[in-house]
Design goal:
- The complex is a heterodimer.
- Chain A has two domains: 69 residues, Arc Repressor Mutant, subunit A (Orthogonal Bundle); 30 residues.
- Chain A is built from six helices and two strands, in the order ααααββαα.
- The termini of chain A are far apart.
- Chain A is mostly helical.
- By secondary structure, chain B is of the alpha+beta class.
- Chain B is built from three helices and seven strands; from the N terminus they run βααββββββα.
- The mean pLDDT of chain B is 93.
- The interface between A and B is medium-sized, with 19 and 22 residues.
Amino acid sequence: MNLDKVFRALANPTRRRLLDSLRAHNGESLSALCANLDMSRQAVTQHLRCLEEANLVTTLKRGREKLHYLNPVPLQEIYDRWIEKYERQQLQALSDLKKIAEGD
Amino acid sequence: MDKPQFVYVVYVATTMEKLWNALLDAQMTAKYWQHENVSDWKPGSRWEHREANKERKLKLLGKVVESSPPKRLVLTWADPADEGRPEKHSRVTFELEPMRGVIRLTVTHDLLEPGSRMLEGISEGWPKVLSSLKSLLETGQPLPRLW
C-alpha cells in the first residue's frame, strides 16, 4: 500500500467530505455524490479518482452506472501499524469519553 | 436486485494460490481471523466459521454457492440461529485478480438485511480481517487479537 497516496488523498476537505457521504450512504453514483457538493461534475470526478488511487474508494459497475464504496482497509492498515494491541482499549475509552464530553 | 452494501479491496503481495488457500484453510484462517473456516468447499456444501479455541463455538454458517479456484468464491453467510431462514442469509463474494505483481482481493458483501446486527458487525469486521490477512501473508505475522 502506498501510504503517501492515502495521506495525500485525506489531506483535502472535499475528499474527506466524499468519504463522509459514502460512510452515510455506501455505493453511491457520481450524480448522487455531486448533488451534495457545490462543485462541477468534473472536479468531483477528479477527487474520486484520487481517492480510488489511494484505495480509499472502490467502484463497481452496475449497468451504465458506476457505484462508489468507502474502502477503509488502508485506514485499518495505518491503525494496525502504529497502535499497539495493549493501547487499543484505552484509546477507545478515551475516544468514547471525548464524544460524550463534547456531546456528539 | 439491490446493490451490494459493502465492497472492500486489499492488495496483497503474494500469489493467487497462497491467497486462495488463506481463505479456505482452517489453520490459516485461525491465524489471522481467530476463527476456522471449515468445509470441503464444493459447490452446494455447507461451510462453518468456528471460534479457533477449545469451545470451537459456531459463529457463522452458509453454503458454498460457487468455487472457481483460485479466482472466485461465493458463499452464503448467516447467523447459526437463522440457518432455516434463507431470507436472512447474506452473500459474500471473494474475487482474486493478479495486478502489477500483487494480488487484488475484492470482498463484496450483499443481501444483508437493513438495520440487522449482521450489517453492523460486518462494517467493523472486514477491514480488520483483511488487514490481518495481508499482514500474515506479507510478513508471516497476523495482527494481534482482532475481537
